[in-house]
């Protein structure tokens, strides 16, 4: 019982899948990514009654005062870590590397419409990052592309689909 986040800007976001990154020296390593809030993680009282609308209201009020910032963290796996099973966590003592910062300054008024152009496909990867052998990760590719097509989103660079 940890409670819900007090804010979208005070929640950590964890990608559940493992990816393989290749450095300039050709070394390949399994990694997992997460976004950590610069303001720190903070949760509500787990015994408080639920409130369905507070997160969006809190974010709108917060962004009128200051931006929300997140640090992209890359956790480096070690021998014996599960790379093909997202249900198996890695030990907390793994090396973590700061990859960059995301600064959120506003949210579109019509977020549903603006979000329709986004692909949430976890297999849209840049050079140097590859998917692991996780079968769930690979199954998500086509499902996310069908969803994107149905919503009229941008074309996929690695698919035969338009």
Give the H and E element order. Answer: EEEHEEHEH
Number of helices: 3
- The poorly predicted ranges are 158-162
The chain-level mean pLDDT equals 87
Name the structural class: alpha+beta
Shape summary: globular
Helix percentage range: 10-25%
Architecture blueprint of SSEs:
Elements: E1 13-14, E2 19-22, E3 28-37, H1 54-65, E4 68-76, E5 96-104, H2 111-115, E6 129-131, H3 135-151
Antiparallel strand pairs: 1-3, 2-3, 2-6, 3-4, 4-5
Structural overview:
This protein is an alpha+beta fold and 162 residues long. The protein is globular, with a radius of gyration of 18 Å. 21% of the residues lie in helices and 23% in strands.
Task: Give a brief rundown of this model.
With 162 residues, the protein is α+β, with helices and mostly antiparallel strands.
Keywords:
162 residues, alpha+beta, six-stranded antiparallel beta sheet, 6 strands, globular, disordered C terminus
């Amino acid at each position: 019982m940890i409670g819900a986040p007090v804010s979208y800007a005070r929640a950590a976001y964890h990608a559940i899948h493992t990816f393989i990154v290749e450095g300039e020296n050709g070394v390949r390593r399994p990694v997992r990514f997460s976004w950590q809030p610069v303001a720190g993680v903070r949760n509500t009282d787990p015994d408080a009654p639920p409130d369905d609308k507070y997160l969006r209201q809190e974010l709108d009020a917060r962004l009128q005062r200051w931006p929300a910032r997140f640090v992209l963290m890359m956790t480096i796996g070690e021998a014996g870590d599960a790379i093909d099973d997202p249900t198996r966590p890695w030990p907390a003592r793994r090396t973590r590397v700061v990859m960059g910062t995301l600064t959120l300054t506003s949210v579109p008024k019509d977020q549903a419409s603006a979000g329709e152009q986004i692909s949430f496909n976890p297999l849209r990867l840049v050079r140097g990052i590859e998917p692991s052998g996780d079968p769930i990760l690979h199954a998500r590719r086509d499902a996310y592309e069908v969803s994107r097509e149905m919503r009229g989103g941008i074309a996929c660079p690695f698919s035969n689909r338009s």
